[in-house]
Amino acid sequence: MKKVILQSITLRNFRGEKERTTNFNASGETTIMGDNGLGKSRHFDAFMWLLFGKDTKDRKDYNVRTIEGKEPIHRVECSVSATLIIDGQELTIKRMFTEKWVKPRGQVDEVFKGNETECFWNDVPVSTTDYQKRINEIINDSVFKMVTNPMFFATMKWQDQREQLFQLAGTITDNEIAAQKPEFAALLDMITGKSLSDFKREIAARKKRLKDDLLQIQPRIDQTQKLMPESVDFSELENKASKIENEITGIDKAITDKSEAIRQQYEAVQMKQGEINELKQKQQKVLFDAQSKAREDAFSANEKRRDLENNIKSTEKEVETLQRGVQLSERELDGMKTRLANKQKEVSDLRQTWFDENAKDYTGDDTCHSCGQPLPENMKFNARKLFSESKANKLAEITGKGGDMNAQITELEQDIANTSKSLETAIDEVLEKESIIASLKDDLAIIPQIDGKTIVPDELSEYKTLGDVIKGLESAVRDMSLGDPSDTAELRAKKITLQNELRNLESLIRNRDLIAKYTQEIKTLEKQGKNIAQQIADVEREEYTIQQFTKAKIDECERQINGLFNHITFKLFDYTIDGNEYETCVPLVGGVPFDVANTAGQVNAGLDIINALVKFHGVCAPIFIDGRESVNSIIQTESQIINLVVSHDKTLIIK
Q: Rounded to whole angstroms, how far apart are CA atoms 508 and 136?
């Protein structure tokens, strides 16, 4: 492990600092305290510029010189030097930003020609290229920025964070994941020669194609059903056709046989009467079917009303539960606001206490109580010093309490924001449920209570049509009389009518073959649909296995990487609303994103990252913790710690 320790640093005319040398604790923490603008962060910028010629924001030679009156001060040394201890060996380095002044021929005054950089290694001048090469052999700038600033890693692009994390943890192969389950191993065997993402796109395309094919099945079935003739009782048609054929044969015979003609007329009357009886039976069946359907429709309609009523009751219970939760959240929010107001008052009172204490001046005596003579100067000095130290300690104690209270206020404000957001969500859900109830009640209002329709036979069109046919047949029977058997004109006319009727029946009977053909086509289409549906199910099983495999790999990657840290975790993958994973890198502190964690959580999470990076790269360097006043304690680290603390001191204090 290579260890870089900053022993001291000297700034000359660097960014407003005329000259300052700061010594650091090599074996512990060093704290730089002072009011804003006194130059705490300037130490870190100077250290970065000394090593790499850039400040903490990666700006090369940015505003290095001290500026007065909107112009940099010229003809003075602008430099940063430091003494480092590297693996126990002392090293002195220096970077100087110098001006080039030349006197053109024929002119009296020198002219400024720009700046140049000079570097020194143990007080020996070296070129900037050699200097930078030697620095990089100790630690390169990218690693240095990551191991010296707890906040730097979280500000990197998420792609760069992710790449660095995978360097720390190493990669996980698909074969390692496949060893967990047999179906994973089978999946890898299936996709040999192609990537997992290519295979996912392939099966997605296959699934879309199968679904498109499946969508065509039902329209084809519907079209075939439309082409299919209406199914009838073909046996009955054949029987009627046979009867008509026999009747025609009988008519042919009756034409030549008078007695047969008389018998035919009698049988015709009997046949008509049989038809009348058959039609009356159909009438009764039509009436019975209509009455049954009316009862079924009434039951079905009332069942829908019952379902709506049950849904309304169930949703109303959900609203009651949500409203109780809203009331509880409102009471909890009121309590939080009360606690916040109390804390804010405490901070205000504490701030007034600080001002009161800070306003106190030394009121001790400067004369001896025994002899009345003035006290020696050393006694006066010691008395005033004790008063100043006591006052400073009290102010520091008050400031510490104020910081703790402000942290509590911040936490309460975050809790109030979270609770308010949850309350708004609950209220929106109540309104949504109440809207659903209103919609259900509207649906219920338009569904009448059905008691069962009273069927009037003559209002049934089929019943009335059959009645009209019956009346016609009965009239025909009444009009039938045994005429002159020798008169065959009527028989011949009837034969023609029967022949036409027979042709119509034969045409209807031929529809049976079409029905059989279309029925077979429908069965074939249904079989194709089942086969396509099974193929879709097989593809979806493959998709599910891929999802499980991807999730297992994601979980293993996150487990392996997060196992390197104690105070921070990383979310390395996320999912779209369609369930597809995508790469990301979100640092989490206590389960919340790094950006919204409190300062103490961010600093300790950053130190946790630095510890892992130090272990991986085998080098540690001084860690500068800005805003250290907001952090009560930090985790242990092998690196040298330099705290930058904002205080009310008007000059920098190093301790």
A: 99
Q: Please provide the average confidence, as pLDDT, over all residues in the chain.
A: 85
Sequence-distant (≥ 6) Cβ neighbours of residue 288 within 8 angstroms: none
C-alpha closest to that of 63 among 115, 12, 113, 14: 14
* Domain co-membership, 634 together with 534: no
This prediction has a pTM of 0.49
The answer for residues whose C-beta is within 8 angstroms of residue 184's C-beta and 6 or more apart is: 177, 178, 545, 548, 549, 552
CA pair distance 446, 444, nearest whole angstrom: 6
Three-class SS state of 376: coil
Residues 519, 635 share a domain:
no
Question: Which has more confidence, 14 or 294?
Answer: 14
Q: Are residues 99 and 14 in the same domain?
A: yes
The answer to whether residues 8 and 95 belong to one domain is: yes
**CB distance 542 to 189 below 8 Å:** no
Q: For residue range 160-190, what is the model confidence (pLDDT) as tens digits?
A: 998 888 888 776 777 777 787 888 787 877 7
One-character DSSP codes across 601-615: HHHHHHHHHHHHHHH
Residue 338 and residue 386 in one domain: yes
The predicted-structure confidence for 447-460, as pLDDT tens digits, reads as follows: 877 776 777 888 78
> 450 and 317, same structural domain?
yes
Rounded to the nearest 10°, the torsion over CA 60, 65, 71, 77 is: -140
570 found inside a domain:
no
Q: Count of domains in the chain?
A: 3
Please count the other Cβ atoms lying within 10 Å of the Cβ belonging to residue 486.
7
